[in-house]
Amino acid sequence: MKEKEIKITGDSLKVMATDPGICTFQTSFDRNKFIEYAPGGEKSNEKDKIKGKGSIQRIHCLCKKMDIHQSKIDKSKKEKYENKKERKKMKKLRYKMRKEKKKIQKHIQNLTREAHIHIAKEWSEIMMQ
User: Is residue 80 in a domain?
Assistant: First the structure.
């Protein structure tokens, strides 16, 4: 195997720093400009952004909804039921809520993957310029 020496000059070196923030989802700096991804998933420094349509905001809402479902599941469990019919009814209700919760979890995973791919694609475009 032959080893090649690669010389990097200051002009060809491209660096980008990222900061996972609290108020903004992600902030990047590439020597020229800052790019902030707002909780809505869109760039916060864009003028023509649509409010409330970003995947990060949808993830937040779905997490709240999933938390409510988990709370209902926990509250529906009793130590002792009055009769067998009530037990079956509550068991069926918990099953439906767990099924709905799994559906929400899958949706959250898909939105998270979408946001990561979108941001990574934008970063690669920035680095190729």
Answer: yes
pTM for this prediction: 0.65
Structural domain including 82 reads 17-128
3-state class percentages of the chain: helix first, strand second, coil last, to nearest 5: 50, 10, 40
How many domains does the chain fold into? 1
Whether 60 is covered by a domain: the verdict is yes
Place of tokens 């923030």: 21
For the stretch 61-71, pLDDT in tens is 899 999 999 99
Each residue's pLDDT tens digit, 114-126: 877 877 887 777 7
CB 36 within 8 A of CB 24: yes
Give the tokens for residue 83: 């009769």
